[in-house]
Design goal:
Strand content: 15-25%
Strand order of the largest sheet: 16-18-14-19-22-23-24
Oligomer: single chain
Number of helices: 13
Number of strands: 34
Shape: elongated
Radius of gyration: 29 Å
Distance between the termini: 58 Å
């Protein structure tokens, strides 16, 4: 099983070293707003009266399912990132001469070549993925059958014309698989010796049907089209085609080393787009592609690449080399996935219930969260479908990970999601799985004394304890930002306090910015596709499928990708999984993190790729901390200058107090720090029981610096500063 179904779907683009501008669908996303338990705001000891003492005490409400944003009248084909490939403005009529090409050329007559020949596997299906475009030319790559080509003199116009005819036939005799002028490679990157030449849109894996057992070769037209070669087989210079096949005769255009095996495993090959006996720079990154369904032999890249241009030593080079590891190898070490939601269908045909474990139903107070038709809200079925619907069964949709064991708990709407989370953590500890991730596609609201309902900005002690219990047991918690389109609730902001929480918002339909309905703020980590009213997402509903949209769907997709990261590298910590998701995201809007888009748009493919090459760090060894130059802190507060003091409250507020005027303003809502201190650069530093954070007062953004040694006291920052003096 492959980690992702690729086909003609498109992968999302990543800035930096990354994919083209159009994202790839990998799974479907569905989202609905869901509200969770509402509670009052408790008073906090030690908080300045003017700051929060006069806030009214809201009435506690039960958890509420976020209002659905469904549009069941719309049906769209399932495309993971909700992308359709636009048809060309005009159609190209097939050449009747090409269509008359015989399909029964005998197998037993092949020209003699020393290398660069590929053998088609037993299925006859060949898959080509365009991985990297490092050439300034814009040409085409084609494959063609070598059967009966021995009747043509190698390198002659007749040979070239016949190869072009077969490639253009789009039959079992040949196909054009990459058109560089319009197709972008999956990854792109500048190197010291050249710029980034990648243009166009990534078109996904190309599937080509060839004859099982046939011998095939590849033809690269460096700066033109196969059609132009067919019409002008005597073309020269950059229009003259180059071939993968090699002979000992350099005069027939079949150059040893024109194509090279990047790893020696026969799966990734690199083409040079200038003849090897000409002015090639020998960097072997002009056209890099991955092939499945056919095996080939070519000179190893070690033997031909210029030593000063060996891109394999770069970060992107390692990603390319490990491509087959992430997408071909059988998965193992599946994590346990938990879903806490409103309820789940008991009999959807696209769910493999043999992989499902059942937790408690905190709404009906029984041990079965599966619902009969009409028994309750099945928002959980949509989330379950996105994460774990069975792939390749011609039923419903394809989930992100259809191999992982899944635990279901029904709690959203009961006010008991924290109890359900504790139950899942216990189940994860007992499961024997190395890792666990839980999906919370819910939001928090509160009922105010005037009867209005607003977003809840405080976690209860029970909720905070449940999240800390998950943190202590290395469980990653993926939460939705909410569908209110404004400030996130306390659950969305929990990522500021707990490093095992990742908060997910939804991107707009154009994948360019935050969706209007998606809440945002200083706790937002990442965006993922969640659909829209105009383009909802298909997922599972009841016994079949339906459409919906919202941050719930975006959250489900991130949960699924997080599980795939652990499949690829089960020794990663939850902190590393979270950081990989953020570090590989495609930046949207301003550079770097921001409150509107977080780290950017989820790049599922690149995240899994990076997981494969990331070295795990031991959970038992905290990262070292370099203490910045800080002014002496007062417990819970720090002087900024002669007239300004910063105060950290136990509710997680950072307040700025002007001692001259007596005015108080809230800087932001974040962690509840035991100590805070100000650096000469103007940045704040705050410590919790065991960790040190850097804070930008102008934005409220927090950055984890590291963990304290376990033998320090609760006032760790004060103690470290004392010890360092």
């Amino acid at each position: 099983m492959k980690l992702f179904r690729r086909g003609n779907k498109q992968r999302s683009a990543a800035q930096g070293f990354q994919l083209s501008t159009k994202p790839k669908p990998s799974t479907s996303f569905i989202l609905e707003p869901i509200l969770t338990p509402t509670v009052g705001i408790d008073g906090v000891d030690g908080t300045p009266e003017m700051a929060i003492a006069y806030l009214p005490q809201p009435t506690q409400l039960p958890d509420v399912d976020l209002p659905d944003l469904n549009d069941t009248t719309l049906t769209i084909p399932h495309t993971d990132y909700s992308f359709d490939i636009e048809p060309a403005d005009e159609t190209i009529e097939p050449d009747p001469w090409i269509n008359t090409l015989p399909d029964n050329i005998p197998f037993d007559r092949y020209p003699e070549f020393d290398s660069g020949v590929f053998s088609v596997g037993s299925s006859g299906q060949v898959e080509i993925d365009f991985l990297f475009d490092g050439g300034g030319f814009q040409g085409e790559l084609a494959m063609f059958s070598l059967a009966d080509m021995e009747q043509f003199e190698p390198g002659s116009p007749e040979f070239i014309q016949e190869a072009a005819r077969r490639a253009l036939s789009d039959s079992k005799l040949g196909h054009v698989v990459i058109s560089d002028a319009t197709d972008a490679a999956w990854f792109s990157r500048e190197f010291a010796w050249e710029g980034d030449f990648n243009t166009g849109e990534y078109q996904g894996t190309k599937y080509a049907s060839m004859r099982p057992g046939d011998k095939i070769g590849f033809m690269l037209v460096p700066n033109g089209t196969v059609q132009s070669v067919l019409e002008h087989p005597n073309c020269a210079w950059e229009n003259r085609p180059l071939f993968s096949m090699a002979t000992a005769n350099p005069n027939d255009a079949f150059q040893v080393g024109q194509i090279a095996d990047v790893t020696g495993n026969g799966s990734i090959f690199a083409f040079e787009d200038l003849r090897m006996d000409g002015h090639s720079d020998r960097d072997y990154n002009d056209v890099v592609f991955h092939i499945q369904g056919a095996t080939g032999e070519a000179v190893h890249l070690d033997d031909v690449i210029a030593s000063d241009r060996d891109w394999r030593q770069t970060e992107i080079g390692q990603v390319l080399i490990d491509y087959p590891v992430a997408y071909v190898d059988e998965p193992s070490h599946q994590p346990l996935i938990g879903i806490i939601d409103t309820g789940f269908s008991y009999d959807n045909p696209d769910i493999d219930y043999s992989r499902i474990g059942l937790g408690h139903d905190w709404i009906d107070r029984d041990d079965n969260p599966l619902l009969q038709p009409g028994q309750g809200n099945e928002h959980g079925t949509q989330v379950l479908g996105i994460i774990g619907a069975t792939q390749n069964n011609d039923v419903g949709i394809d989930g992100v990970n259809d191999q992982a064991p899944i635990w279901l708990g029904r709690a959203t709407g009961s006010g008991q999601w924290a109890n359900s989370l504790i139950e899942f953590v216990d189940a994860a500890k007992d499961s024997g799985q190395a890792n666990a991730v839980v999906n919370l596609s819910l939001d928090l609201t509160q009922l105010n004394p005037d009867g209005s309902t607003t977003t809840r900005t405080e976690l209860t002690l029970a909720e905070r304890a449940a999240l800390e219990y998950a943190q202590q047991n290395h469980v990653l918690v993926v939460v939705s930002a909410g569908n209110q389109g404004g400030e996130m609730s306390a659950l969305g902001k929990a990522s500021l306090e707990f490093d095992n929480v990742i908060t997910v918002g939804a991107v707009n339909s154009e994948l360019t910015s935050r969706a209007d309905y998606s809440s945002y703020g200083s706790g937002l980590d990442i965006l993922a596709p969640g659909g829209s009213a105009e383009a909802p997402v298909v997922s599972l509903h009841g016994h079949g499928t339906g459409t919906s949209f919202g941050t719930s769907i975006a959250t489900a997709h991130v949960t699924g990708v997080a599980s795939q990261i652990w499949v690829t590298n089960p020794d990663l910590s939850y902190q590393q999984v979270k950081e990989i998701l953020k570090a590989t995201a495609t930046e949207l809007g301003q550079s770097g993190w921001d409150t509107e888009t977080g780290a950017g748009l989820l790049n599922a493919a690149l995240a899994v790729q990076m997981a494969a090459v990331t070295t795990p760090f031991s959970r038992s060894i905290p990262p070292s901390i370099e203490i910045p130059d800080l002014k002496t802190p007062i417990l819970g507060s720090s002087w900024a200058d002669d007239s300004m003091t910063y105060l950290s409250t136990s509710s997680g507020q950072i307040l700025r107090i002007n001692s001259g005027s007596g005015t108080v303003e809230s800087v932001y809502q974040g962690h509840a720090f035991t100590d805070i201190a100000l650096s000469p650069s103007g940045l704040l530093y705050g410590s919790t029981f065991d960790r040190l954070f850097e804070i930008d007062p102008s934005t409220g953004q927090e950055r984890l610096i590291g963990e304290f040694p376990s033998d320090l006291s609760i006032n760790a920052l004060t103690q470290i500063l004392h010890l360092s003096q």
